[in-house]
Write a structure and sequence with these properties.
This protein is α+β, with helices and mostly antiparallel strands. It contains 6 helices and 7 strands. The strands form 2 sheets. A 5-stranded antiparallel sheet has the order 1-2-5-6-7. The longest helix is centred in the N-terminal third of the chain and has 54 residues, at about 1-55.
């Protein structure tokens, strides 16, 4: 009897020890994953601030290009791919004319008459009056659609806000969002800074791309970083930064989003 009890105790202790060892291994693995994820996030942020430093370089010939081309930087804990794009290379949904909005929405796959309704609803969202465009939408239309919000009657405050315009779908928004901004302040698009998809869509119509620019260099840039730690973890972020080298505050971050919406992953 005593021998049987001892044997059962040994079996029980063995099971407990094995279970504890497995829990320890799992927790160690989870902790290691958290550490690597933290390293990747740190690398993505380091890459963004590296890009800001490059934008502050006085010699224009030494600065990184601002056309969205990718620069890769290696750190002790991993590597970061960094892209800087002049905001004027994107469509500013606060300033873009109806013809440009119609063109990019058509290229993204929306047919008439839904496209015309979305363009007019976008114009109604950003204008300051409550007068409705022919196919647009004002407060009553949002209420009639059962929505809990209405037209802002003012400028878009973020790209995300475009998602809430009456007629916009999630699929269409995700298709368009890598090519949009609310920070250029320009009605046109400088194609030398634009993503290839946008160039292909707009290049044939010079009237809606080459007009509406102020003189001087841009001061607003979209920065995207994609980081990979040595342990294989990934992180990314999108940042919009206003660069003013001659002012006491050399730069100001206008927006920050993680993970990034990567043009490299889009179908365009």
């Amino acid at each position: 009897m005593a021998l049987v009890v001892v044997l059962w105790l040994l079996v029980l202790l063995t099971v407990i020890a094995a279970s504890h060892a497995r829990v320890v291994r799992t927790e160690t693995r989870l902790a290691s994953n958290h550490v690597e994820a933290g390293k990747a996030r740190g690398l993505a942020e380091a890459g963004a601030y590296h890009a800001i430093i490059e934008l502050l370089v006085r010699d224009a010939e030494q600065r990184w290009p601002v056309d969205g081309s990718v620069n890769r930087v290696h750190y002790d804990d991993g590597s970061v791919a960094i892209a800087i794009r002049d905001a004027r290379g994107l469509v500013d949904i606060n300033r873009a004319p109806a013809a440009m909005l119609d063109k990019i929405i058509a290229a993204a796959g929306m047919e008439q008459p839904q496209r015309k309704a979305l363009v007019d609803a976008t114009l109604d969202w950003r204008d300051r009056d409550d007068l409705k465009h022919l196919n647009g939408a004002e407060d009553d239309d949002y209420r009639a659609a059962g929505l809990k919000w209405a037209a802002r009657d003012g400028p878009f405050r973020s790209i995300e806000e475009f998602r809430y315009v009456l007629g916009m779908t999630n699929a269409l928004f995700e298709r368009l969002v890598p090519y949009l901004t609310v920070h250029s302040g320009q009605s046109g698009v400088k194609l030398e800074y634009a993503p290839s998809w946008l160039v292909n869509v707009l290049a044939e119509d010079q009237d809606i791309t080459t007009t509406g620019f102020t003189t001087g260099a841009s001061s607003t840039y979209h920065i995207t970083t994609w980081a990979t730690s040595n342990g294989g973890s990934n992180a990314s972020l999108d940042m919009v930064v206003l660069v003013t080298p001659t002012s006491p505050q050399a730069y100001r971050i206008l927006s920050w989003r993680t993970p990034a919406r990567s043009i490299r992953r889009s179908t365009g």
